[in-house]
Model the fold of this input.
Amino acid sequence: MKRRDFLSSGMVAGIAAGAVPSAFAMENSKSEISREKLRLGFIGVGGRGRGLLRNALRLSGVQIYSICDIAEENLQNAQNLVKEAGQPVPKGYGKDKDSYKEMLEKEDLDGVVIGAPWKWQVPMAIAAMKAGVYAAHEVGPASSVDECWELVKTYEETGIPGMMLENYCYHKENMMVLNMIRQGLFGELIHCKCGYGHELRERLVLGKGTGPNPMSDSTKPVKGEGDYRSVHNQFRNGDLYPTHGVGPIAQFLDIQRGNRFLYLTSTATKARGLSKWSEENLPADHPRRNIRWRQGDIVTTTISCYNGESIIMTFDTRLPRPRTDMYLVQGTNGIWENDQKSVYIEGRSPKKNKWEPLKNYVQEFEHPLWRNYLSSGESSKSGHGGTDYLELRAFAESIRQGTNTPIDVYDTAAWRSIGPLSEASIAMGSHPVEFPDFTNGKWMTNKRIFGLTEKY
Amino acid sequence: MKRRDFLSSGMVAGIAAGAVPSAFAMENSKSEISREKLRLGFIGVGGRGRGLLRNALRLSGVQIYSICDIAEENLQNAQNLVKEAGQPVPKGYGKDKDSYKEMLEKEDLDGVVIGAPWKWQVPMAIAAMKAGVYAAHEVGPASSVDECWELVKTYEETGIPGMMLENYCYHKENMMVLNMIRQGLFGELIHCKCGYGHELRERLVLGKGTGPNPMSDSTKPVKGEGDYRSVHNQFRNGDLYPTHGVGPIAQFLDIQRGNRFLYLTSTATKARGLSKWSEENLPADHPRRNIRWRQGDIVTTTISCYNGESIIMTFDTRLPRPRTDMYLVQGTNGIWENDQKSVYIEGRSPKKNKWEPLKNYVQEFEHPLWRNYLSSGESSKSGHGGTDYLELRAFAESIRQGTNTPIDVYDTAAWRSIGPLSEASIAMGSHPVEFPDFTNGKWMTNKRIFGLTEKY
Done:
């Protein structure tokens, strides 16, 4: 029985009116997913989707049941991965860009993992939730604020949770700092920084040739035409990759749970990096040499929070630079700085106002989830430092237990909305732009949902 | 003959109408300061002022001619320093807060060095310029935008230059980076960061007892009542110490000389640091324990420049933290980060997108002024890493040659105005606030004035 049919049968009548719909659904639907293995579908199995698939194949009690990708090569590669892992070959979809809807309709899935390009992630998640299927999706900026509202409303109407696969939230250091914050080492938090500093000029201009053609929704991949991020860099100007940075910070600050983003200002520099790279690296007649990139090279966004903290975000992928996440957390009692892997805790660090290595805190403050994971034997096999495995395990456990996910639609809406909100601020000369309250007031009483246990 | 009298004698008629009044004055006044030794006065010789005095005493061809301080102890200490250096004891002033005007009126000075608290620096400089005396003053925020205009107009009316003693502009690394920028290593500049990260809680709450009473203009210093910055932290909320950070950055970006600050947004966090420190360190009945500090703990300011660059500034003195200047410069061809003393230059650094130590560039790119200074024998004796000596030498040389100073009133106005402009933005919920063009259009054609030679 599909969860959608179960819901529509009236057994969870009144769910849309409930303050915590998913918890309500959970109580009533637990028995429903007691089959031997969870059935997961995948939509979008390019490079990133297949990375997630490899991790999902190591989850116990999970079957990869069907896969959709409009690129036949991607689909076959993914099906082969499943076969090689000893599971039955999953049914394939992908004859056109609406095939994912067909898959959601026809297959009896418990959850779907969406590794598709930015602009498809939220619409596909919404479609999955409407089909009664838990939706996990990759990270990116929202296309619009409305899209974020749609995601939230679909959750509240269907009771089907969504989860953003923000793997940076599961980083070992980030979870340890979360643990230190919750144990009070930093005192009252005041100020945070984060960002995405990752030089991507060649990929933004030329792509790697494995994704769909960025200039069209309908055609197959073409080498040498950029990847899907190219179009966004050509036509948009904002923080287009906010969630790696702001996700962990939002959890540090209890955003949507006693705190919220109030407003932001955003400032873009001129755009030079991609054009300069193209001039220096492409022949004069190359079709992608003279694109007029709208996206400023560096976008800086300042978020003001209800509880009086500020968050400074930097989006920086179009200039040469060493990689960085730019994390900084500063409270009344201490400060952490990730680039130098350093921390200072007043009254505990050995020298007044001098950094000490963060690793001095591992023994005492390693997050229980990571402590558990590192002793499991699984940790040596997972990609992305284990974070992909951990986030997918959390997703699968949420389905199995019928609960909300630990990075839910309210988190997703707030974090992804930074994309269009920063564009609005930049378009108006850095004018402050307010955040919608996607919880419609529930942030005042909502409780923490992330990093609460050693399990997920 | 005092410069003021010289000017009013009509020998430089038309000076106010000239595009470059100081250059005009220079030509006509050279002979006027050919006496054996330059005569410098000092106003404000607390801790900082005496530090400057010690450096000035090592300048060749300079006599410390008179000193003003309302604290008798400061005045006597300063006079003793001059005497110990083998110069005649300078005449002392300081019976009340207007004594500096009396000194400027009565003494035949060539220049005056102002080490007084923030709010006196610009008014005293204006008074000096009106008295025909070159004015060098310490750093701080403007009290108002109008004060900045007044400084500029006084210069344009009198032809007497002023100089802000922004010693961070003379830092060895900053001047080397300036040299690297001008030689094109970073490509076209895109983005800069800077800040003042310096934990000052005890000094802001209690002071060191050597400055004037912060709560009054007229009384003598009282121990245990904060220093002069306390009042600003109690009543203002903005970036109150912008120039150490933004000075070198403005020179990197040619601000006021082909470029200018267009507008800023500024965001303050809640204020917790000073109150928490007071609660934990002062007895319950201490008169300074329950001050309601208005100044947010962290103020972040984003400046947009005419040429499309952004500058991110942080003002951070009220929370525990290791010291930092937060400098970062990013261009189309490279990036410098001061906290890690690291640089990456594309096509030159050995590993793609990996930091290398900045010191790898010293041999080739040390600024000529520093190369010259390090070989002079003076460098082992100067305070603040030599920067105080270098800035005072530049000031004295400007007087001697009758030229504009290398950090002039237009620089001073733009840099110090960040104080009140950031307050305005914060007061309006981070609304963008435009910078006045203190040059009235001259920025379009003005030429560089700083770091041009090995001499000053």
Q: What stands out?
A: The CA atoms of residues 62 and 120 of chain B lie 25 Å apart.
